[in-house]
What we know:
This protein is mainly α. The protein has one domain. 89% of the residues lie in helices and 0% in strands. It is built from three helices and no strands. The longest helix has 134 residues. The radius of gyration is 68 Å and the shape is rod-shaped. It is a single-pass membrane protein. Keywords: ATP synthesis, CF(0), Coiled coil, Hydrogen ion transport, Ion transport, Membrane, Plastid, Transmembrane, Transmembrane helix, Transport. GO terms for molecular function: proton transmembrane transporter activity. Its main location: membrane.
Amino acid sequence: xxxxxxxxxxxxxxxxxxxxxxxxxxxxxxxxxxxxxxxxxxxxxxxxxxxxxxxxxxxxxxxxxxxxxxxxxxxxxxxxxxxxxxxxxxxxxxxxxxxxxxxxxxxxxxxxxxxxxxxxxxxxxxxxxxxxxxxxxxxxxxxxxxxxxxxxxxxxxxxxxxxxxxxxxxxxxxxxxxxxxxxx
Length: 184
């Protein structure tokens, strides 16, 4: 340790021996070498370092500026997209409401149409039943009339003999003649 302090103390005066040589004492020469290197680096490297730092600063500022511009553009696009989304949502809601009311209108039309169809079918059924009833009644009447007529003819044929038959015919002819005279 004494050598270290001696080397710093001896910095103040140099031996005046006139010879030039290498000092092999590392502890004595290291601080001097380092200070010389630092002074040279600071003196000559200050401009280069300053330029590097200025370039780096400019690149960082440009990057920040570009990022701000991109951010502004992105925010603008986001607002436009939100506006379009709101517009599309409003259109979708309007379409949904229109489609719902259209479906409701079609449903009511279908219900009314089905009701009218059922009502028409019911009327057709009732008309068909009424027609079939009338036809059945007419058929029964015809049969009853035919049977009554056959029965009456059978009774007349069995009750009438030739003389009674001729008298009935003459009476009918006389009545027709009387009617003829009245109308003339």
